[in-house]
Amino acid sequence: ALLRGSQRRIRVPEGVTRAAIGGQAEIIREDDKAYRVKSLSSDLDRQHYLEAVRVMERLKVVWESREPGSNHVFEPIDIGLSARNPNEAVQVYRWVEGHDLSARQASISPDAVVDIGLKVARAICLLHKNNILHRDIAPRNIVVADREGESLHPVLIDFGFARMAEGASATVLQSEHLAPEVRTAPALWSKAADVYGLASTLRWLLAASEKSEALCGVLDRAMADKPEAR
After folding, report:
1. Which of 20, 71, 99, 201 pairs as cysteine with 27 (C-beta 3.0–4.6 A)?
2. pLDDT digit string, tens, across residues 39-80
3. How far apart are CA 103 and CA 100, in angstroms?
4. Is 4 exposed, middle or buried (0-12, 13-18, 19+ CB in 10 A)?
5. Cα Rg for the chain, rounded, in angstroms?
């Protein structure tokens, strides 16, 4: 009851096309906004929602700072409970028109990988400066925005697993791009896990026929088994 009384209520659009439905949430798009709707069916879900509120508030500070890298993070708009159902959490952010990198395995040139990597790395550095851990950096969560006449403009999206660094849980997650120390219990989440995720993603994107020894050396060091060595 306290949770319901203290949180903002957000109207979720009805009668519009769902952009995606996943294991974590459904995404509804209306014009240039995306609504991420997730059921709060347990005490743990409600706890995670309150952590997401902290992350979203900090993300607004990051985005509005206009510091280098801020334009490579999606624009957060609002977070609260659904006006139609107080057992649903709603995150609102600016829709990024473009294509994610999930279908680009081993197909991107070294120059483009470096370009994408530098821009996303600036975004991650800014997140870490503000004590935000993304925790799910992967090809599907990097969208290259459609911007006519401009160079590649990658945007880091989907902060569903994001946590503040000081409150990161020991939850174990599984993905080929996650660092080894977070795949087994107790998971040791740190900024170094995000570094691993970015390096693994870039290595996965790099064209198999155009392996750059210098670039691969950098990525291999960023994927060291020990977090402190990255």
Report:
1. 20
2. 999 999 999 999 999 999 999 999 999 999 999 999 999 999
3. 8
4. exposed
5. 18
pLDDT grade for 103, boundaries at 50, 70 and 90: very high
| pLDDT value, residue 170 | 79
DSSP the chain: -HHHHHS-EEPPP-SS-EEEE-SS-EEEEETTEEEEEEE--SHHHHHHHHHHHHHHHHHHHHHHH--TTGGGB--EEEEEEESS-TTEEEEEEE---EEESTT-TT-B-HHHHHHHHHHHHHHHHHHHHTTEE-----GGGEEEE--TTS---EEE---TT-EEGGG--------TTS-GGGSSSSP---HHHHHHHHHHHHHHHB-GGG--HHHHHHHHHHT-SSGGG-
